[in-house]
Amino acid sequence: MNSSSQPFAAPEAPALLLAKQAAKVSMIGSRAFLLEAPGEFDLAAQRRIWALCNTLQASSEIEELVPGMTNLLVVLKATPYEPDEFAQRLHAAWAVAEEIGRAGRLIEIPTCYGGEPAIDLPAICDYSGLSAAEVIRRHHSATYTVFTVASAPGFGYLGGLDPAIYMPRKKVPSLNMAKGLVTIGGLQSGVAVLTGPNGWNALGAAQMPMFDPYAEVPATLAPGDTVRFLPERIEL
């Protein structure tokens, strides 16, 4: 933080704007607030989260900002004397936040669809009513945006999935899903970065590493990047 930074001031936001676009703000512990964007998990909401993060980052009150999937965790340096007042300032800042883009890279991920790694492809087909070939086609035809990198080192939450292949996360996670599996979780896609328990649904596999702790930039993906899955092989 810049030593000359100041507490962020609540912007003037019309009452109607506050009501229409109200975010949910929850206190996490004694000095952290979680702001959750209203509505769908879409790119417009994520771009507003990025804008809000930019607005807050110079504040002298804030120790850390952790943007998530259409949410933002705000960690303060000290417990606020008036938590409700701080929450109202967050509400007001969200109400006037405008979408911003991020100049990300294009990341192309060669993917082997179907076959032994696609342990959940039959379930995705049953849920969507589509054939395996059509599920795979819709998955690799989409263009994805990295909303955030979180939950595991290098794991990118990818928005842009075709709604026709929406697949809820599993109620009972698979206990030993392999690193590199290409998955669907709700309206998001991703590439597993660790072998272990996982509630997402696998329809293929990728060899491209998503995280290398020894690299100058350890994570392959960054928020704002564009991702395309390139079908290297399709086994049905």
Describe this structure in words.
This protein is of the alpha+beta class. The chain is built from 5 helices and 13 strands. The strands form 3 sheets. A 7-stranded mixed beta barrel has the order 5-12-9-10-7-6-13. A hairpin with a 2-residue loop joins β9 and β10. The radius of gyration is 20 Å and the shape is elongated. The termini are far apart.
Structure at a glance:
By secondary structure, the chain is an alpha+beta fold.
Features:
single chain; 236 residues; alpha+beta; Gyrase A, domain 2; Cyclophilin; 7-stranded mixed β-barrel; 4-stranded antiparallel β-sheet; 13 strands; elongated
The portion of residues forming beta strands comes to 25-35%
CATH topology of the largest domain: Cyclophilin
CATH class of the largest domain: Mainly Beta
Low-confidence parts, pLDDT < 50 over ≥5 residues? none
**Biggest β-sheet, characterized?**
7 strands, mixed, barrel
Number of domains: 2
Question: Largest beta sheet: what is the strand line-up?
Answer: 5-12-9-10-7-6-13
Order of helices and strands: HEEHEEHEHHEEEEEEEE
Which descriptor suits the 3D outline?
Answer: elongated
- The CATH H-level superfamily of the largest domain is Cyclophilin-like
**Count of DSSP E strands?**
13
State the helix count.
5
Examine the secondary-structure arrangement and name the CATH architecture of the largest domain.
Beta Barrel
Radius of gyration: 20 Å
Q: In angstroms, what separates the terminal alpha carbons?
A: 53 Å
| Rounded mean pLDDT score | 90
Query: Helical amount among residues, as a percent range?
Result: 10-25%
Helix/sheet category: alpha+beta
